[in-house]
Amino acid sequence: MLSLDDPRWNDLQHAYGRAGNVPDLLRTLALSTGPTASFQDEPWFSLWSNLCHQGDVDTASYAAVPHVVHIASQAAEPVDFGFFQLPTAIEVARQTGGGPEIPSFLAEDYHDAIQQLTDNVSLHRHHPWDQAMLLSAAAAQAVAKGHIDVADALLNMDARIFSKIRNGEFD
After folding, report:
1. What residues are paired with 13 via a beta bridge?
2. Closest CA relative to residue 53, chosen from 16, 9, 18
3. CA-based angle 101:9:81, to the nearest 5?
4. For strand 13-14 and strand 17-18, is the pairing parallel, antiparallel, or unpaired?
5. Going by fewer Cβ within 10 Å, which terminus of the chain is more open, N or C?
6. pTM of the predicted model as reported, rounded to 2 decimal places
7. Is the pLDDT of residue 16 over 70?
8. Mean pLDDT, to the nearest integer, of 76-100?
9. With 0-12 CB in 10 A as exposed, 13-18 as middle and 19+ as buried, what is 103?
């Protein structure tokens, strides 16, 4: 995994340009792994904004995923659903044309991290899950097993879609 001190972060790109700020966001994330109250809470808001902006990803996204997955694997307490949702959204974007090719020096760690999502879901299965965590964990499992369309659908499920399903409005 690319060290957080590696100067190549400055050569990687995110939604707003050079990604030299991402290591500090990941360091902050490692210090606050628990569930957040709002999507605007930091560092998640900045991580999403920089790494998966409106469904687009860039090279820094691929470098960050192994760190996000590793942090979740080390957390003993309940984690925020973003630990499953962000890597899943990045992989869905990559697979559906929302990002560049993975730089070769990041590829192995990135792919290993995506595969590790199933282990991370298992590690946190005994903690209480709200609906956002359930959907994110299921989407992470789907993306790790190569079911991009299922992962994408799970990431986009909301109360309106559940209501339509319950009411038989999807025929």
Report:
1. 18
2. 16
3. 75
4. antiparallel
5. C
6. 0.94
7. yes
8. 97
9. middle
Among all chains, which residue has been given the structure tokens 């090719």?
101
Q: Which amino acid is residue 57, in one-letter code?
A: V
Question: Which tokens go with 50?
Answer: 């920089």
The answer to whether the CB of 127 falls within 8 A of the CB of 135 is: no
Concatenated DSSP letters of 75-105: --S---THHHHHHHHHHHHHHTTSS-PPPHH
Which residues contact residue 146 at a Cβ distance below 8 angstroms, ignoring those fewer than 6 apart? none
56 strand-pairing partners:
53
Tell me, rounded to whole angstroms, the distance of Cα 106 from its chain centroid: 16
Residues with Cβ within 8 Å of 16's Cβ and at least 6 positions away in sequence, in order, are: 49, 50
- One-letter amino acid at 111 equals H
Distance CA 103, CA 61 (A): 11
d(CA 86, CA 44): 9
pLDDT category at 168 given cuts 50, 70, 90 is confident
Compute CA 5 distance to the chain's CA centroid, rounded to the nearest angstrom.
21
Sign of CA dihedral 7, 22, 82, 43: positive
Q: What is the DSSP letter of 70?
A: H
